[in-house]
Amino acid sequence: MKMLVASGKTIEEAVRSGLAQLGVKEDRVNITVLEQPSKGLFGLIGAREAKVQLELLPDGVEEAISFLRAVSEAMELTVSVEREDEGESIRINISGSDLGILIGRRGQTLDSLQYLANIVANRHSDHHLRIVLDAEQFRERRRQTLEALSERMASRVVRTRKEIVLEPMSSQERKIIHARLQANPNVKTYSQGDEPNRRIVIALK
What we know:
It comes from Cohnella soli. The protein is α+β, with helices and mostly antiparallel strands and 205 residues long. It has six helices and nine strands.
């Protein structure tokens, strides 16, 4: 836990000084007043500044980013990590070269890292955090791939009049296909099976 002692003519000034040194806002610290300011004799002799101690509180997202940097280092990957707040969720983007090992087959390693990053973040937060982890825009590319697949499979179902069962997918990926075909007037979708082998079925309406 990082701590800092700061001083100033008033307690408020000492706190402002400490926050500036830490580069954070007041809601990220616990403040303890160590010494009250004193004007001293005749306002000169023995004058004492206010002294406060600022204890930096852990930030769940920063802890998750530190975890991801440590994992990348262990995998001997040189990466940069950026945070992007998106309403109720926080997107963490990883960029660098040779990230295939970090993404894994169809994003399975990335999904596992996302799961672990959420555990780390929420362990260090007093409110629920939802982290979406991405690497080199993989999520967007995968979304486009799945939407194109769902359209092709829906057309095949209409043409052959036979339902199609897709390969097992994560709930995140199943959601993309359900959403894409929701407005299709000819087919319906539903999921069957148990995790991690739960699959989408595309059938005629």
